[in-house]
Amino acid sequence: MRGRPTVIPLVVFAFCVLLLSACTTDAPPAAEPATTPVVAPPAPAPVAAPLPPAQALIDVLARLSDPAVAGADKVGLVELATADDAAALDKFGKALADNGALPLSFEATDLKWSEADPGNVVAAVDVTTANDPPGKFSFPMEFTPVRDGWQLTRKTADLLLQFGDSATASTPPR
């Protein structure tokens, strides 16, 4: 009986070896399907309205500085301007003429949409005077669309022009 317990484990061992060798094959493993990462095409950029031509903004500035254009006709060139601003607009053109600055030449560059006020356009404007020697300055200006044209924003106009009658100070009461 002693021989029997030794034979059973040997038979079981041999059976397991046979079973395992039948399960394995010498064929190479099947190649995994090639996976190329799927890259989605970039989303198209949102279509924005084209920026206005620089000349459209320059035309606004040229009319504002032209003393031959009445102040009342300039009111529509400045955002939120009223008939009360016509006198200040007249004074602006007259002051430019009196100082020998006219005609002014303008160059608008670096046009971009305003980040603060969607729909508005910001431009770097170079202004050159006709003085001898010519004066030149650059100023960032903002324009807002109106009907089929552009206006200088009130914020920019307030920085460039003097609206109202700040020259006369009120006398304090006694």
Key traits:
4-stranded antiparallel beta sheet; Nuclear Transport Factor 2, Chain: A; alpha+beta; single chain; disordered C terminus
Descriptive overview:
The chain has 174 residues and is of the alpha+beta class. The protein has a domain at 54-160: Nuclear Transport Factor 2, Chain: A, CATH 3.10.450. It has 5 helices and 4 strands, in the order ααααββββα. It has helices spanning 3-23, 54-65, 71-74, 86-98, 154-160; strands at residues 105-113, 121-128, 136-146, 149-152. Strands 1-2-3-4 form a 4-stranded antiparallel β-sheet.
Write the layout of secondary structure elements.
Blueprint: H1 3-23, H2 54-65, H3 71-74, H4 86-98, E1 105-113, E2 121-128, E3 136-146, E4 149-152, H5 154-160
Antiparallel strand pairs: 1-2, 2-3, 3-4
